[in-house]
Amino acid sequence: MKSLINYLEFFMLRKFIYFLSLSLILISCATVPPQVNEFQANPERIEEGSKTTIYWNVIGADEVSIEGIGSNLMPIGSKEIVLDRTTTFKMLAKKGNEIDKYQILKSAIINKQQIFADYNGYHREMCPHILGTKNGITHCLFYQFGGQSSSGPVLPSSPKNWKCLEVDKLTNVVAVDGEWFTYDNYSSLTQTCIESIDVEVEIQVKK
User: Fold this and answer.
1) Edge-to-edge, what's the strand order for the sheet holding 16-27?
2) pLDDT tens-digit profile of 49-67?
3) Cα dihedral 152→156→158→160 (10° resolution)
4) pLDDT of amino acid 24
5) How far apart are CA 24 and CA 44, in angstroms?
6) Among 7, 96, 173, 176, who pairs with 1 as Cys (CB 3.0-4.6 Å)?
């Protein structure tokens, strides 16, 4: 399976919303990846409360979804929307069977990669630290640095950002190269998330 995640981001300044950036994340496996020919907004600059239209064109995907617009979308389409606040549109294009989530997490720990995933209805951006089992259930200990959480907004660089999540409940799991996030209390953290550890990240302790 290969999956693509595109971000279409807007930020608000005074009375206007400006088109900010469009980025692409590609996760490779054996199959040919989907091709994103278009993912944009027109107009790119609107007044608060005005309309813009999101356009997308994807070739070779088994599933296309855009956060804020819908899931199981046609590969080519458009949607007119009204924006009155800062908004991020995330497109996910999938092809083929899902890669084993456990192997994605294990590789991400070894290579110090970020993990983007959904959990209990919230999109989360995290760095995995420990993978293993507790009471026969597979868990992963993450440090969440972005996205959303059931407890409210994620505050960057907070010692409370540790998350113990069940691997089977994670969806749309992708590994991403980027800055590695942890917290200074990790070396002294008494974790109760995992009893039988399979793999743990290597952290160099400053002397």
Assistant:
1) 45-47, 16-27, 2-13, 88-95, 63-66
2) 888 898 999 888 878 888 7
3) 40
4) 46
5) 18
6) 96
Written as one string, the DSSP assignment of the chain is -EEEEEEEEEEEETTEEEEEEEEEEEE--SSPPPEEEEEEEESSEEETT-EEEEEEEEES-SEEEETTTBSS--SEEEEEEE--S--EEEEEEEESSPPPHHHHHHHHHHHT-EEEEEETTEEEEEEEEEEEEETTEEEEEEEEEEE--TTSSPPTT-TT-EEEEEGGGEEEEEEE-S-----GGGTT----S-SEEEEE---PPP-
**Six-digit token string for 124:** 């989360």
What's the sign of the alpha-carbon dihedral 193, 184, 116, 129? Answer: negative
Q: By CB neighbour count within 10 A (0-12 exposed, 13-18 middle, 19+ buried), where does 75 fall?
A: middle
Using only the alpha carbons of the chain, give its radius of gyration. 19
Per-residue confidence band for 166, with pLDDT thresholds at 50, 70 and 90: very high
- Token duo for residue 78: 């458009």
On the CB side of 12, how many CA atoms lie within 13 Å of its CA?
12
Q: What is the rounded distance in angstroms from the CA atom of residue 116 to the CA atom of residue 124?
A: 6
Rounded Cα distance between 73 and 55, Å, is: 12
Question: How many angstroms separate the CA atoms of 182 and 130, rounded?
Answer: 12
Residue 89 has pLDDT above 70, yes or no: yes
